[in-house]
Amino acid sequence: MSTQEQQVVDLLKAIETGAAEPVAIINPEQYTQHNLGAADGLAGFGALLAALPSNSAKVNTVRVFEDGDYVFAHTEYEFFGPKIGFDIFRFENGKIVEHWDNLQETAASANPSGNTMIDGATVAIDLDKTAANKALVGQFVDDILVNGRLDKLAGYFAGDSYIQHNPQIANGLSGLGAALEVMAKAGITMKYDIVQKVLGEGNFVLVVSEGKFGGQPTSFYDLFRVENGKIAEHWDTLETIPPQAEWRNQNGKFGF
């Protein structure tokens, strides 16, 4: 784990422990907050923690990766209820100056294939293939999720063997197809409009997208594991973007 990755893990754990030292990695003069439920700056971060019921927070960071000035983490939270979250931090001159996240309520049970929202592979390999894997996954999201070119779908996967951690979807292309069919019959629409950011380390790639789910403005965070040039595993969180009148800062959910 790199120094910056460890600093992020320690900072997130401080939400649970209340330790002050890890928080010093945040630049007190410049901390741009994109969690719309928190006020801007270090004071906003502190106020959010102060609102937590005493001794209620639990933090278990399962995977953490680094891409240049960015560190992104995948974490299991007890934070105003059980949640799975992705956090992205931007470093500048050795300090954290910006933060994004996407939180979804933890599913009550495993998905149809027995996978949870957080289990699976955790260690990045193939570090020399980072750029190629980012390009592959970025193209997949653009082709399939943004533009609906479903005729290209099978080409991105190694048969029907890929592992799915979305709580509603079973493993493999067959599981994805079945879930989309159920959604269509229920009249539930999912539309990705814009890819906002692609980050990666080795065989792990995180894509941040903006769109709509069930007609509501939504932030999509999708983490993919690539194996031999094909998508092998997927985790995600969806978060509804509240109306601007409810935002506690005006930085927006994205703004990369």
UniProtKB/TrEMBL annotation:
Residue ranges occupied by any SnoaL-like domain in the UniProt entry: 12-99, 139-234
GO biological process: polyketide metabolic process
Name this polypeptide is given: SnoaL-like domain-containing protein
Gene3D superfamilies: 3.10.450.50
Organism: Devosia insulae DS-56
Signal sequence region: none
InterPro entries per UniProt: Cyclase_SnoaL-like, NTF2-like_dom_sf, SnoaL-like
A family per Pfam: SnoaL_2
